[in-house]
Amino acid sequence: MNIGEASERSGLPAKTIRYYEDIALVAPDRADNGYRDYSSSDVHRLRFLSRARNLGFSIDECRLLLSLYTDRNRASADVKAMAEQRLEEIDAKIAELQSLKSALQPLVDCCHGDDRPDCPILDDLAGLRTKVKHAQA
């Protein structure tokens, strides 16, 4: 199948598929005319990559996951360790985002958001406010 059909079946843009080919994550055959010829196995691999990337695995991690997937002698502990590491990274990112929210929420709460020119959000960003007052009713 051509790249357009592989794109449709895998849910990945053709540009991404070409990139994955450039970095040797997929290696479709070439037809006599030089066009890429994707097999159902290639599409399966592309779907695998799409899912792994959507879960936040890096390209290098995807490469390792693919090698583990094709290695029937693999230990599932290796795969689990990678997934646990990814979960730790996600938990750290969630904590970072919660911290950002905790810092920004009081600024949003104390900003009147009206036609007045004073803005505690801008003042804080400029380092002009040291303590945020809670919004008055």
Automatic annotation (TrEMBL):
Keywords: Cytoplasm, DNA-binding, Transcription, Transcription regulation. It holds the Pfam family MerR. Coiled coil: none annotated. Its main location: cytoplasm. This is Cu(I)-responsive transcriptional regulator. Residues 1-68 form the HTH merR-type domain. It is found in: Cytoplasm. SMART domains: HTH_MERR (SM00422). CDD domains: HTH_CueR. It comes from Rhizobium aquaticum.
